[in-house]
Structure formats: C-alpha cells, structure tokens
Amino acid sequence: QVQLVESGGGLVKAGNSLTLSCAASGRTVSTFTMAWFRQAPGKEREFVGGITWNGGRTDYADAVRGRFTISRDNTKSMVYLQMSSLKPEDTAVYYCALRWKLIVDVPIQPNEYVYWGQGTQVTVSA
Predict the structure, then answer these.
(1) pLDDT above 90 (res 101)
(2) Whole-angstrom Cα distance, residue 11 to residue 2?
C-alpha cells in the first residue's frame, strides 16, 4: 500500500503564489508517474499536471500551463506543485495521485491513477 499526504493549501489572494507538497510513504514510488488533480464544488475532478518517474516529462492542463510547475524529489518521495498568478477559478481541493504502472507517460484520466491523497483545500480570493 501507498499513502499520499498533501499539504500546503490555504487561502490566498488572486495573483499570489502557493506551493503544494505531497509526501509518499509505504512503498517505493520513484518509478511511477505522479500527478495533481483538483475538484471544485459541483464539478468533476480534473487533471492539473503530471510528471514521469524521473521528471523527464511533464504535462499540464491548458488552464494552468505557464502558471503552475510540478516537480518531484525521489530521494524524499515528494512531489510539489508550485502555483503562481493564482486566480479565483483555481479554487478547489487539490489531490496528489500515483499511477501504478511502469509506463512513461502522463495520463490525464483520473482512473489511470491508483493511489490518492486526502486532498488539500486551496481558496483564491478576488
């Protein structure tokens, strides 16, 4: 089993920055793609960004590309999401997810990811 724990959420004003962290434990995750998703009230969970096992490939949703950066530190079993120029529409619960397949790609479908964290709330005020 793998446990994922997100942290770093909070309330920020539009235009500001925030960095989310995801700590993995239980089993080695360094060989798998990890991703961030978000879910706003009344909306479906959506892909935000993902990163392959060695950071060689990253992918982002159009809505965040150029503002968000995903990175990972396999020595610490950590994944990060640096968010800048935040907008009110970025308000959501953000989830860390782990894909349990040895395929070097970044799927955007939530059902491609097996393990999920509990989520951390990000609220951006106007």
Answers:
(1) no
(2) 28
